[in-house]
From TrEMBL:
PANTHER family hit by this protein: MERR FAMILY REGULATORY PROTEIN, REDOX-CYCLING DRUG-SENSING TRANSCRIPTIONAL ACTIVATOR SOXR
Domain named PPM-type phosphatase: residues: 120-350
Keywords for this protein: DNA-binding
Gene Ontology molecular function terms on file: DNA binding; DNA-binding transcription factor activity
Organism: Actinoallomurus iriomotensis
Domain HTH merR-type: residue ranges: 3-73
DNA-binding among keywords: yes
Alphabetical list of CDD domains matching this protein: HTH_BmrR, PP2Cc
SMART domains: HTH_MERR, PP2C_SIG, PP2Cc
Protein name: MerR family transcriptional regulator
Length: 356
């Protein structure tokens, strides 16, 4: 088979001539040659494989800039890149699905039909066995739970985590369910501005920052905000589910299929953050969830999650008599395992009514 005109090539690749012209302009799929007189584009049959790959990736919704990267990779690396992209799409879709369900309820006038829930909660924070000071901070109230893990070295993370928690503290009040995510988003901006002020007022604090994981309740709805590697879990019907996604270098390698979770647990760079609050305007993850009576939520710094195996966390949460018992046992587990980092835990039980 000889060279194909743009029309013939478009039909074979199931792309439009207009798309082929765009891909040419972007350097994504150049024609084999262009007639110098007529300007007609001609393609070789061997280019069909790349053209079809581009078409498939476009149907997935992948941006053209990322498609260009995938097309230049070896097949195995390209497969990992597609897997990482799709994992992100599924996570984003799940978050949008929860928000859509909430909006549908609100627009159909069912927003008030959800039962009123309350929480019974406890918080405990410990320096651990190795660190000279505690750079974690936490808050637990009737409407708000939050954990922040400061960083910066030599104890400088403590003011950062404290500033983040202080920015969220005003949220511990009655907030309509429809305003949960907006309220959390604004609080994150306020926290980031506070960190920016710390470094501006004291140049020696340059480089400090903090993670943040927080839950905000309204009725049976809860808003989740998360950035960094602190975590949130829910124990529901005996099963423990992680409801946050770590923003770390190692987690990105796991997402891309370059590491297994088991390899990631012992990776030397497992604490390297890709996203955190540091006064530079980084966006946080925001999700809306439905709480149920009987749920037990855990928020923790990586002083727990990086040290205590998940089965032990699950068993402890399931066996603890109440939130206060749970946080005591979890912190003790981390310290019994060497306590290499500060450890902070917030546990809350979801109950019907006013929690009395």
């Amino acid at each position: 088979m000889g060279s194909l005109t743009i029309g013939a090539f478009a039909r074979a690749a199931r792309l439009s001539p207009k798309a082929l012209r765009l891909y040419d302009e972007l350097g994504l799929l150049r024609p084999a040659r262009v007639d110098p007189v007529s300007g007609y584009r001609f393609y070789e049959p061997a280019q069909l494989e790349r053209a079809r790959l581009v078409a498939w990736l476009r149907r997935l919704g992948m941006p053209l800039a990322r498609i260009r990267i995938v097309c230049e990779l070896a097949p195995a690396d390209a497969a990992r890149e597609v897997a990482a992209y799709w994992a992100r799409v599924e996570a984003d879709t799940a978050a949008r699905r929860d928000l859509a369900a909430f909006l549908i309820d609100q627009l159909q006038g069912r927003g008030d039909e959800h039962m009123t829930l309350a929480i019974r909660y406890a918080v405990r924070s410990d320096t651990g066995r190795v660190r000279p000071s505690n750079e974690d901070a936490a808050y637990a109230g009737a409407r708000l739970l939050a954990v922040a893990d400061g960083f910066g070295g030599e104890g400088r993370g403590a003011p950062a985590s404290a500033a983040v928690i202080e920015a969220l503290r005003p949220l511990d009040t009655d907030i309509p369910a429809g305003d949960l995510l907006n309220a959390l988003d604004q609080a994150v901006h306020d926290a980031d501005a506070a960190l920016r002020g710390i470094t501006r007022d004291d140049p020696s604090m340059e480089g400090v920052g903090s993670t943040l994981t927080a839950l905000l309740w309204s009725g049976s709805r809860l808003g989740l905000v998360h950035i960094g590697d602190s975590r949130a879990y829910v124990l529901r019907d005996g099963e423990l589910f992680q409801i946050t996604h770590d923003h770390t270098h190692v987690q990105s390698l796991i997402d891309e299929g370059r590491l297994t979770p088991e390899e990631g647990a012992s990776h030397p760079q497992r604490s390297l953050l890709l996203r955190a609050l540091a006064g530079r305007g980084v966006a946080a993850d925001l999700k809306l969830r439905e709480a149920r009576p009987g749920d037990r939520y855990l928020l923790c710094s990586d002083g727990l999650s990086a040290v205590v195996p998940l089965p032990a966390v699950q068993d402890t949460l399931a066996a603890a008599a109440d939130p206060d018992d749970a946080v005591r046992r979890l912190v003790d587990l981390a310290n019994d395992a060497g306590g290499p980092d500060n450890v902070t835990c917030v546990v809350a039980d979801v109950v019907e009514g006013d929690g009395a």
